[in-house]
Amino acid sequence: MTRKASSTASGIGRVLIAVYAVMALGATARSLFQIATKFDEAPLAYLLSGLAGLVYIVATVALIRSGRGWFRVAVIAIVFELVGVITVGTLSQVDSVLFPADTVWSAFGAGYLFVPLALPVLGLIWLYRVRRAEGRR
Amino acid sequence: MVEWFVWVQIVTAIVAGLGALIVGFAGVKPNDYTLGATLLVELFLIIQLVMAIIAPLLGNVATGSALEFWIYLVSAILIPPAAVMWGLIERNRWSTVILGVACLSIAVMVYRMSQIWFVQLA
Predict the structure, then answer these.
(1) I want to staple A24 with a disulfide (CB 3.0 to 4.6 A). Which of A57, B28, B69, B116 is the partner?
(2) How many structural domains does chain A have?
(3) Is A96 on the interface with B (CB under 8 A)?
(4) Is A7 inside a domain boundary?
(5) Among A12, A26, A37, whose Cβ lies nearest the Cβ of B65?
């Protein structure tokens, strides 16, 4: 017990980090492919997809690192994702040209088994529990 | 891609994934079974890699974007070893759950790869 572990990276938080890492890899790689090969078809959607990938990377790193600053970064990144998946999910139902079906947040993340919708909710619950547990100490 | 092998891969990954999730949440640390199953999933991915190199030479080509297929395949190959490393370094129940998450991710990715190969229209 000599080293101080990051509280957001303990217990089931590790699983959350693993899922975020997979999403970061998947969303970033896919959006790079889309931006490289068919950017003209839906520039806004693919740019947002790339941004989503970057935010997943930020969230992954922020959950691994410890400290108040990183905790805040994690909250911001995860809230951004929740807003993103709900906004783009809704827009993709309304305007299928601007937002085609093959981005990470389209149709509320249906192409990724709704993981993009579930993940920010679980993430925020986890951060809330960590904060409450730390408040008691 | 060869369709029956795709299904072998997907079923193996789902069984390995669900198994690891169940025993992981039950509190089991990574053991020979869960680590071995994850390595089996990786072995199948490497076989798929070899098949994907050979298949186009025999006239079995992807109907969708070959580049997209390869991005998926290479990404997928990186995941199980990372999860196994994690399971060897940190020996607790959550590492077993992570093995499960990794295997289930592979099942989804292989399914996507098969869609790109067989039924891509765009």
Answers:
(1) A57
(2) 1
(3) no
(4) no
(5) A37
